[in-house]
């Protein structure tokens, strides 16, 4: 639809969306029917005895809820070149590599034209709502988009991150034009093989088109903060390039150099202007609107683990609105942000009922059962998952794990994300992203979730903000080599902070873990004092480089918040870079 259009008909997109969300239950039924009709001949479904039935009841009775481990052998056969219909009726055209940064291991997932269509649908839906409140005119976008290395599987399928498949697709570029959000960087920059060369050129292109830039964006907020932190280091070099009209020798890629040569010409006036603006800033506050006077908003996923970058982003953005992008994964899209003026901390995502079939595992029952087991002292009892409920059966205020059935061969697949239902838009739920379900610091029976960790870190980091320093990034792990075991938090800080303040940060972190079991275990010392390890500047960049080396892309990068014991390389990087450590004294 989008590729033929000059400008997106936003009113039509909104109308279609309202109609569909008014009838979510039927749309879900129809969507499941379509998925099962298209893929009924696939071996995976054939084996389960659906025998052509496409109704939700038969689907749930025959098809088990699975995790990645269960479907991995099927995906491996696809990757190895088995062309028979294994997971889908039509062949899978590519494999997406998930970032793998949340759990230390990246996964390969099927990608096909249907997922591409879903992508365009969700992008145009949120754009339609966004453009009503924050209209952009014929301008350009400074998009910090990067591709991953694209490899071929043994069977010859292209394999790269989902965002790389999307950026490579011509429909995506047409859609960006239709949404008046065309990137100001040439494609050679997006597809450059060296992240730092691409980043430098994105910044340079942004400056060259500074008057036209209407929006600054990336897939996840981390990349925008990373870009402007880099800008702080390289701005003089960027100005020199603009002044002379010659690209810095740090960019060695011949195709990027020739693409950039077409844009660069000596412009001492612009160089002077940018130099003057940068020199006049106080600690880079308001950097974004100063550089890009016509920017209307900043756009990227800003919820979940990205919330930790909001403080820095707001520092750069000042009064430019921050708008969180949509909710999805390499496995497929889930919901759109249709309330763009809501601050990211309170943002929710409305599920699009026709882009997949969605179910939800209630988590409240789980927690109650867990507590009951403790009361009965039956710690060894196996946790039985409660039955998943359908999209329109979820209850406001409750938390769930998302299960997705998509058009690319995943059936009742546990995504591992925890969401809270905050309300309904017509008859489809609005979800707040809570955290990854199994990302936890846990020693005995305590459970410190990713969200608990984020809140504790936010609280403790206030103490370093008072010293005019900021937290560059953080992570954690459980140290079982001490007796008793204890939690370790890694912090990288933008500058020097006194031992007294850091000791207090450490105490504050320990005090802020409110999990009942953690608090009790700390009292009786079955969990040792929390340890804060301050790492040297640049440590988290080394972590990023490590993941890039494994095939991740900056566009989908998420700092691992809890590093598991098997992720030895990441632990080693931290271990090699500890500058100071503190033990809690609470
Ligand atoms: P990946 O497949 O590597 O891109 O990672 C997908 C994961 O990123 C999801 O399962 C979520 O945990 C996280 N994610 C994606 N979109 C959002 C969002 N809007 N808010 C919070 N987390 C998100």
UniProtKB/TrEMBL annotation:
Organism of provenance: Hibiscus sabdariffa
Family: Belongs to the IAA-amido conjugating enzyme family.
InterPro entries listed in its UniProt record: GH3, GH3_C, GH3_M
Protein name per Swiss-Prot or TrEMBL: Jasmonic acid-amido synthetase JAR1
UniProt keyword terms in alphabetical order: Ligase
Domain of life, source organism: Eukaryota
The GH3 middle domain, residue ranges: 349-436
Domain GH3 C-terminal, chain residue ranges per copy: 451-563
Spans through the membrane: none
């Amino acid at each position: 639809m989008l590729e033929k259009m000059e400008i997106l008909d936003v009113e039509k997109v909104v109308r279609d969306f309202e109609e569909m969300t008014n009838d979510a239950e039927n749309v879900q039924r129809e969507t499941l029917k379509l998925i099962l009709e298209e893929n009924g001949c696939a071996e995976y479904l054939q084996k389960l005895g659906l025998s052509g039935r496409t109704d939700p009841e038969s689907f749930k009775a025959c098809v088990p809820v699975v995790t990645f481990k269960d479907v991995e052998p099927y995906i491996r056969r696809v990757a190895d070149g088995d062309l028979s219909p294994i997971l889908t009726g039509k062949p899978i055209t590519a494999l997406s590599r998930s970032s793998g940064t949340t759990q230390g291991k990246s996964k390969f997932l099927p990608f096909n034209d249907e997922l591409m269509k879903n992508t365009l649908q969700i992008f145009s839906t949120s754009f339609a709502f966004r453009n009503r409140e924050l209209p952009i005119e014929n301008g350009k976008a400074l998009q910090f988009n990067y591709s991953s290395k694209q490899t071929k599987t043994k069977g010859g399928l292209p394999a790269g991150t989902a965002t790389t498949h999307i950026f490579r697709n011509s429909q995506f570029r047409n859609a960006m034009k239709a949404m008046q959000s065309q990137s100001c960087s040439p494609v050679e920059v997006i597809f450059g093989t060296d992240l730092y060369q691409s980043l430098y050129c994105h910044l340079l292109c942004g400056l060259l088109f500074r008057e036209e830039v209407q929006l600054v964006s990336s897939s996840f907020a981390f990349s925008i903060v990373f870009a402007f932190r880099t800008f702080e280091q390289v701005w003089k070099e960027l100005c020199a390039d603009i002044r002379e009209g010659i690209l810095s020798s740090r960019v060695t890629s011949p195709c990027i150099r020739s693409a950039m040569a077409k844009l660069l010409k000596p412009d001492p006036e612009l160089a002077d202007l940018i130099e003057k603006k940068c020199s006049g800033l106080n600690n880079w506050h308001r950097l974004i609107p100063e550089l890009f006077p016509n920017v209307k908003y900043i756009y990227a996923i800003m919820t979940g683990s990205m919330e930790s970058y909001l403080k820095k982003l707001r520092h750069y953005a000042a009064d430019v609105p921050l708008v969180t992008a949509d909710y999805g994964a390499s496995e497929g899209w889930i919901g759109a942000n249709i309330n763009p003026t809501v601050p990211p901390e309170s943002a929710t995502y409305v599920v699009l009922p026709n882009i997949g079939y969605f179910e939800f595992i209630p988590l409240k029952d789980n927690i109650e059962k867990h507590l009951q087991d403790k009361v009965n002292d039956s710690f060894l009892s196996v946790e039985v998952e409660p039955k998943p409920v359908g999209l329109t059966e979820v209850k406001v205020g409750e938390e769930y794990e998302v299960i997705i059935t998509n058009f690319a061969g995943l059936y009742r697949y546990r995504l591992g994300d925890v969401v809270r239902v905050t309300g309904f838009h017509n008859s489809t739920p609005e979800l707040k992203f809570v955290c990854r379900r199994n990302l936890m610091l846990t020693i005995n029976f305590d459970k410190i979730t990713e969200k608990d960790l984020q809140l504790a870190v936010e609280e403790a980091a206030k103490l370093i903000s008072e010293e005019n320093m900021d937290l560059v990034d953080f992570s954690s792990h459980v140290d079982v080599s001490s007796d008793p075991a204890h939690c370790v938090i890694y912090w990288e800080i933008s500058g020097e902070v006194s031992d007294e303040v850091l000791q207090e940060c450490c105490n504050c972190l320990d005090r802020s873990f409110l999990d009942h079991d953690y608090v009790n275990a700390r009292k009786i010392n079955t969990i040792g004092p929390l340890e804060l390890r301050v790492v040297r500047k640049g440590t988290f960049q080394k972590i990023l480089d490590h993941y890039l080396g494994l095939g991740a892309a900056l566009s989908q990068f998420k700092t691992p918040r809890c590093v598991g014991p098997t992720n030895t390389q990441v632990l080693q990087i931290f271990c090699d870079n500890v500058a100071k450590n503190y033990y809690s004294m609470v």
